[in-house]
Amino acid sequence: MTIQTYNTLSGKKEALQTLEPGHVKLYVCGITAYDYCHIGHARSALAFDMIVRYLRYRGYKVTFVRNFTDIDDKIIARAKEQSTTSEELATRFINEFYTDMDALGVDRPDIEPKATEHIKEMTDLISELIAKGMAYQSGNDVYYIVDSFPEYGKLSKRNIEDMKAGARISVNEQKHHPMDFVLWKGSKPGEPTWDSPWGPGRPGWHIECSAMSRKYLGETFDIHGGGQDLIFPHHENEIAQSEGANDKPFVKSWIHHGFVTIRDEKMSKSLGNFLTIRDILAHYHPEILRFFIFSTHYRNPLDFSETAMRDATAGLERLYECVATVDALDAGNGDRQAASILSAKDIKKVAELEKRFQEAMDNDFNTAQAQGVFFDTVKTINRLQGKITPKSAVTDIEFLKNGLATLKKLAAIMGLLREDAQQFLAARKEQLVAASAIDPAAVEALIAERYQCRLDKKWARSDEIRDKLLAQNIELHDGPDGTTWSVNDS
RNA sequence: GGCGGCGUAGCCAAGUGGCCAAGGCAGUGGUCUGCAAAACCAUUAUUCAUCGGUUCGACUCCGAUCGCCGCCUCCA
ipTM score here? Predict the structure, then answer.
């Protein structure tokens, strides 16, 4: 079996074939560091985190590069608003980004280049383009000649004439052609500047990725990724720059993930539906966000809502409940002589977990399908677990524990089931208690009173206490070891 | 206007022409319980927006129609 990935350039799923056997070179466009990251950034980071982990799990060596844009118009404008420097602002939000990524449990890429640390690589690349007649200086700026690259538009499937007809292109007196894009911007007074052959200025946005990917991954590499909104103009322009300068194919396969919407509206600050990662993590465990994001294929749109998060919470808790029950089994107490109660069908279902997971993930990283495989397996494990007693066959207990171990290993590729099950379920409760006006001590007191009532068979008072607590969204669970309680958030 | 994508049960969501159209949430029935709740088990689409076409056979391929979304300006 080979891994199939959807390539935006060809518009088809293709078998992964690396330039260097067994080694995937991956470049992903990272953030522009001028604000806190939102849930869309989280989807991007989590999608590629999953992809890298899966490729490594499948035996590939992966060199993963993700850049930081730490100089651009938005950074300059925001720094001015806050009366600080671009450098300070960018550094601050890169640190905030790391805080969010750490909270989400996202692994660091191998290389995280910053634009401002690669000015020389960028000016070299621009000089090459000028020397080849593919760029020109105009005033203090340098522009790319879109007409010099015949394949311009091949990624976004559009042509230059259609785009001019779109008539949304900003008028700029400096450009010879309206579609030409800036490689180098002459600086205005008070802006950060670097020296260049064209005078003091700063790089355009697209050139950094061409320059830094070439430095760290070479002129041609395997996979380039980012959000679908980057297809045009950013990635189209990267192709024009890199292939124009190198005369070699830039990237073999492009991976673009879909957007996150909020209650079916695109996130935007003007609509007031802009949710940052930390907003969400204040209410939900990071694994719930991961579970939610991976419940849809990465290329499809994903709609964030309270309902969707509640569904995700219920689903993830179902997985953790299974883990918790199997964790509680102890093979050491089993009977070495007892016959197995496992049917061939049950054994097959659990044994095929890993194979079915790989089939799903090999199919363009279909995490939604893979989650389905998890649940299907959990259903079998739960059913068997219900039949297991402390005196069951040791081999049966070990079989379930092994199945669970495999499940945890595979779920970890999506960053799921990494917590201790009991702790996860308990943490959920604590979070809900903290978010409510519930006094745990008062609840415990009522439970104690109810316990005595039940011993005395005073069912009326016992049920009254239960109903009273339920009115506060507190659910009681009577078990053999006493009564526990949880908060119902729906 | 140009380009791209989507429309599968109450909701979410897989499905790379052919065994009963995965899975989750909610619902329903059960096990458990003093009664419940929680948990677990079982169950829930003669049908895949509509209409045609290709094929022995289509949710899957092609065309048209309707509806929704994204990009074309910074954007994950």
Answer: 0.95
